[in-house]
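Two proteins were folded this term; both appear here.
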Amino acid sequence: IELKDLADKINRILDRLDDDSRRILWLYYYDDLTYEGIAAELKIPIGTVKSRMYVAKRKMADALGDLAVLF
């Protein structure tokens, strides 16, 4: 798969995610925040950040299927 195609697929998946999952992933991967930074930004406990990140990553992996091994 070409890089542009992969990027397009990831963006389509992100668009379909719920707001919590999309926001957590965006803050971590695009804004380069730590879990602690995300907790401070969203004013939520670190445990909530960790559980939301786990759920968001699972959703991404499920949607990517075989391509998930690239990450």
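Next, the second protein.
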Amino acid sequence: ALKELIEPLRKSSGIDVRFECTLQREDIENSQTELNLFRMVQEMLNNSLKHAEATEVLIRLGKENGKNYL
């Protein structure tokens, strides 16, 4: 779902948005966690567009020391 969020933004804004994800499906505990990650990325992208005047954004999802990170 994040790729579907990122791609239109990349095309319409001209911002270089890169998405790196090393999480596996089983790393996301439940649908609420998945929804929360989606909403956090959505808010980060909106803030980058509106307030930061960003020209590039890197979104990285992964797992380190047994904990998911964004």
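The helical segments are 2-13, 31-52. The two ends are 15 Å apart (CA to CA). These notes refer to the second protein only.
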